[in-house]
Design brief:
Layout (H helix, E strand, L loop, with lengths): L1 E5 L4 H12 L3 E6 L14 E4 L5 H8 L4 E4 L11 H22 L3 E5 L30 H18 L4 E7 L1 E3 L6 H9 L5 E3 L8 E3 H13 L7 E4 L7 H12 L6 E3 L1 H17 L10 H6 L9 H7 L7 H14 L3
Parallel strand pairs: 1-2, 1-4, 2-3, 4-5, 5-6, 6-10, 7-9, 8-11
Helix pairs in contact: 1-6, 2-3, 3-4, 7-11
Amino acid sequence: MKTLVTGATGFLGSHVVELLVEQGHEVRALARRTSDVGHLKNTGASIVFGDVEDIESLRPAVESVDLVIHAAARVTPGWGVWADYESCIIKGTENLLQACTKAGVSRFLQFSSLTVYDKAYYRDIPADESTPCEVEFKPDNYYDYAKLEADRLAFKFHDSGSLQVSAVRPGWVYGPRDRLLSDRIYRQLHMPIVALPGASNPRIPLVYATDVADCAIRAATIDRAAGHVYNIAPPYEVRLRDLVSAMARALGRPEPRIIVPFGVAYWACAIAEMWARLRRVKEMPYLTRSAIRYTSTETLADASKAREELGWEPKVSVEEGTRLYAEWRRSQGS
């Protein structure tokens, strides 16, 4: 099957590209001309240049393609201006859907996020695919709000009969090339004083990147998945400190024993954000208030639908996943 992957130079997109090639698909990897394509050159995928925010650049990219897996997005939760999220996630998705429809693409996989369940996601009862999605429009939720709007756009195309659409909603994803969760924990564990923000130890929907890629490809290629949404989360309990402790063991570093009060950590992040804005820094600070809130909140999801309908099961344990991440960081000389 000839497949185009957007966001192919990013974290999840690059893992999707690798697995598709491994499975024998003919893969096109969409990349902006300003992106680093060094890794893609070693995957066996053909690289096409384009930008989801430029519809004209998408037309040749989707030509003669059977399937599009859309992983491109602005992923800086709690940071940035709304116009950037709107342009990349909402308008970019609309551009891609229109280009796919005109080119006669038959299947489309939308990468969403468990955060589109918003408040329903942060409770004791795991959110499943029937849980209502209502995201409050505020700076802390720009990513979540944009993702939900993009999901709705995609399924409008499906409902009109223009395109067969499926969607996946991953939880906390980690692994090689992750610039958020894995990187933050890695850097924290290498600091002179290793500390945790707050004393809570919430349950988290942690999934390794290759397991997410596997579920996404199943949702994109199995006929019965068209028109459906699938959560991606582990069937077993994982807590935040399970991840931190496993990463520490993989790196040969001491496990955090010092607890910084949540309020202190929160306001330290607020000051860091304010300083970054005063300096007009576009890059997201090392830690943000949004990230700190995640470390103290239960985030639960039910992914039984993916297991029952797609035959998906996560294969990579937390111990193995952190070991693989540590090996990758060492291979990068960092």
